């Protein structure tokens, strides 16, 4: 079967509701990577991202008979995952731990950070790395609605219409949220560049002591 012969999400949903064998595996093969990219950028933790992506597919299977035939599977999966990420992030802030799985073998290769840039000259690297770390921390501390909108737009290249369905607003609302997210990032970086006031990193990143 060629790439152009792959069943659509709508056909897969119908087959899933009819309990056809192997359909969930097809959907996982199609959507696991983009879902993982989103979850990793939201949580910056490989194990948590994998776990929540898997949970999203479990919930899809559990709720398959409740979904309307015209349900957007991508929208449903990203909405479910974004809510799981938000809840887990809040839990993690209340129960801070240090993850040691950063060096473990990844079943899915890591995705780049918003701050990833080409290699810099040695003399400027430290200063630039500190600024980019501040950018990552600022992104991590964005309000949930702004963060989800920015990640879906920046990393998943999702059209405004699909983002609107995930974050439950109009396409104009998506534009507004993207503007507000960028403004907040710019304000945070301006403070850092002016005063050296680096935003605090969130807990639970994949770091070692």
What report would you give on this structure?
This protein has helices spanning 9-17, 23-43, 46-62, 73-94, 122-140, 144-154, 160-167, 171-195. It has 209 residues and is mainly α. Helix 4 packs across helix 7 (160-167) and helix 5 packs across helix 8 (171-195). Helix content is 63%, strand content 0%.
Q: What name does the CATH topology of the largest domain carry?
A: Rna Polymerase Sigma Factor, Chain: A
- How many beta strands in the DSSP annotation? 0
* Order of secondary-structure elements: HHHHHHHH
What percentage of residues falls in helices of 4 or more residues?
A: 55-70%
Our count of helices gives 8
Q: Please tell me the CATH architecture of the largest domain by its name.
A: Orthogonal Bundle
Q: How many angstroms separate the termini?
A: 48 Å
CATH superfamily of the largest domain: RNA polymerase sigma factor, region 2, helix turn helix motif
Uncertain stretches: 1-5, 100-110
The overall number of domains is 2
Q: Which structural class best describes the helix and strand composition?
A: mainly alpha
* Multimer state: single chain
Main β sheet profile:
none
- From the spread of the alpha carbons, the general shape counts as elongated
Strand content: under 5%
CATH C-level category of the largest domain: Mainly Alpha
What is the alpha-carbon Rg in Å? 19 Å
Mean pLDDT: 81
